[in-house]
Automatic annotation (TrEMBL), chain A:
PANTHER family named in the record: FERREDOXIN-2, MITOCHONDRIAL, FERREDOXIN/ADRENODOXIN
Record's keyword annotation contains Iron: yes
A Gene Ontology term for the protein's cellular component: cytosol
Superkingdom: Bacteria
Positions of the 2Fe-2S ferredoxin-type domain: 2-107
UniProt keywords, alphabetically: 2Fe-2S, Iron, Iron-sulfur, Metal-binding
BP GO annotations: P450-containing electron transport chain
Protein name as annotated: 2Fe-2S ferredoxin
Pfam families: Fer2
Signal peptide: none
Cofactor requirement: [2Fe-2S] cluster
GO MF term set: 2 iron, 2 sulfur cluster binding; electron transfer activity; metal ion binding
Entry similarity comment: Belongs to the adrenodoxin/putidaredoxin family.
From TrEMBL, chain B:
Name this polypeptide is given: Cytochrome P450
Organism classification: Bacteria, Bacillati, Actinomycetota, Actinomycetes, Streptosporangiales
InterPro entries: Cyt_P450 (IPR001128), Cyt_P450_B (IPR002397), Cyt_P450_CS (IPR017972), Cyt_P450_sf (IPR036396)
Ribonucleoprotein keyword on record: no
Molecular function GO labels: heme binding; iron ion binding; monooxygenase activity; oxidoreductase activity, acting on paired donors, with incorporation or reduction of molecular oxygen
Length: 108, 401
């Protein structure tokens, strides 16, 4: 099963096995991972699922869409032009088999 | 936390015949607390619906639109306003949402609307400032929300007073379960007035597109029909006015009654956004919305038949101690967790960014900045009311001038 590693600012991390088709946001919300909110349920409307993808995991991810791009500019924690993504737009099995992300300190 | 683990074994649905609508109107929270504990999905005769009161169940309903449809049969909202996107599911909902949503996205809000919000707030504050006191809901929150809404929808020739009156009349219609003919007459007059305003606006915006919502619906890749535009404009007038009005009143009241939090916010105005969000959680302006089951289903330990009419009680979910610690407290320091004040899933509030900007970034900071020493005047008691929609009815304030 695809694997997602969430690194937190305090040095701890969560590892979630996500069935194919699950987004980085949905896996965190259902898996009880702190720091990812996912208020809009994955419509690229709320920016509360912002994550920083680890540089070595960026290869092969789909491009940022226009809506995602606009929303990332609204994320509470500063946007990183290379690494920032919306967790709701990255799907296990499609975008990655294993991914490691840093969870921002704040989503609002 | 898996939602399924929250569900207890099925048992027959309990009837909560002790729930009275008057109590819900005055102070719904003790009623919700009892419902959450005793019967989280309960048949409530007074509301003629099953009320869903726990966070986990509400979240589950929001995320399973195939079972819990927004397209309610016999919906009073459809009767009054026509079939808007709020009562549609799936592809037809998505299509209308996409068309209507363009001017409500964050970039448009920031670049096009926020300067306008500032102008609208400033104008009202100039009118108020010398008086030294005001009833903040009717003298600021409502006209401010109306002026903003008028500009965003694209009906600049309509007065904020008319818009407020139409909104109220239509909302009264959507809640007219008592079938009161005078309420129907008023709501029909209001919808006719909206259609008259649209008849004037549509040709103009068809010829001269602008940044407004009506223009966006007209000029979308897959343009909406006049009937679709009319229904969506009506639902926007209904919803787009009382929510920002109510959350603004609640947020001001919360700060005036929590002086320690107020002091901190005034030294760090970025916290106004947190105040806004906590106010939406604490006293959710939309307290309940309807859904209807498309099949027999178990929810929160209750068996619901196909076609069951539900009331999804966000106002209760957002005070569920299973989700929020000390949920009845207004606390800008609470750990950030998803609340359901804007709904969640496919129907997540289209106006969320407008509300965040107009209330959290513009109105709240400007009010506290330009009305020094803002406080409750004490002339009359502060009154709150409602459960389907909840907000302050009377917020008498004073300031130094
Ligand atoms: S969940 Fe809302 S933008 Fe990703």
């Amino acid at each position: 099963m695809p694997k997602i590693i969430y690194n937190h600012a305090d040095g701890t991390h969560d590892v979630v096995d996500a069935p194919a088709g699950t987004s980085v946001m949905r896996a965190a919300v259902t898996g009880g991972v702190a720091g990812i909110v996912g208020e809009c349920g994955g419509q690229a409307m709320c920016a509360t699922c912002h994550v920083y993808v680890r540089p070595e995991r960026l290869a092969g991810l789909p491009a940022v869409s226009e809506d995602e791009d606009e929303m990332l500019d609204c994320a509470a924690a500063g946007r990183d032009s290379e690494r920032s993504r919306l967790g709701c737009q990255l799907f296990a099995g499609e975008a990655f088999d294993e991914i490691e992300v840093d969870v921002p300190e704040s989503q609002s | 936390m898996a939602l399924d683990q929250e569900l207890s074994p099925a048992h027959s649905t309990r009837s909560a015949d002790w729930v009275r609508l008057d109590d819900l109107h005055d102070d719904p929270y003790p009623v919700y607390a009892r419902l959450r504990d005793e019967a989280p999905v309960a048949w409530v005769p007074a509301a003629n619906r099953y009320l869903v009161t726990r966070y986990a169940n509400v979240h589950h309903v929001d995320n399973d639109p195939e079972t819990f449809s927004a397209d309610e049969t016999g919906s009073l909202m459809k009767r009054v306003m026509g079939h808007s996107l709020l009562r549609k599911d799936g592809a037809s909902h998505a299509r209308e949402r996409k068309a209507a949503g363009v001017p409500l996205r964050p970039k448009a809000v920031k670049e096009t609307w926020t300067p306008l919000f500032r102008r609208n707030a400033e104008r009202l504050l100039v009118e108020m400032r010398d008086a030294g006191e005001a009833e903040l809901v009717s003298q600021f929150a409502a006209p401010y929300a109306a002026a903003n809404l008028r500009d965003i929808i694209g009906l600049p020739e309509v007065s904020p007073e008319d818009l407020t009156a139409w909104s109220q009349a239509m909302m009264d219609g959507t809640g007219n379960y008592a079938d009161d003919p005078t309420v129907w007459a008023r709501s029909e007059a209001a919808t006719q007035a909206v259609d008259d305003a649209l008849a004037e606006a549509l040709p103009r915006l068809r010829a001269n597109p602008d940044d407004s919502m009506i223009s966006a619906m007209l000029h979308a890749e897959d343009p909406l029909s006049p009937a679709e535009i009319s229904a969506n404009v009506k639902v926007t007038i209904g919803g787009g006015l009382n929510e920002p009005r109510d959350v603004l009143g609640v947020a001001v009241w919360a700060l005036l009654t929590h002086p320690e939090q107020r002091t901190r916010v005034l030294t760090d105005p970025r916290l106004f956004s947190v105040v806004f969000d906590e106010a939406v959680r604490w006293t959710s302006p939309i307290g309940m919305y309807p859904r209807q089951t498309t099949r027999e289903v178990e929810l929160g330990g209750a068996m619901l038949p196909a076609g069951a009419r539900l009331g999804v009680v966000v106002g209760s979910a957002n005070r569920d101690p299973r989700q929020f610690e000390d949920p009845d407290a207004f606390d800008i320091d609470r750990p950030r967790k998803a609340h359901l004040g804007f709904g969640s899933g496919a129907h997540y509030c289209l106006g969320a960014w407008v509300a965040k900007a107009s209330v959290g970034q513009v109105a709240l900071p400007m009010l506290f900045d330009q009305l020094p020493g803002l406080r409750l005047s004490g002339r009359r008691p502060v009154r709150a009311g409602g459960w389907v929609f909840r907000g302050l009815l009377d917020l008498p304030v004073a300031w130094d001038h």
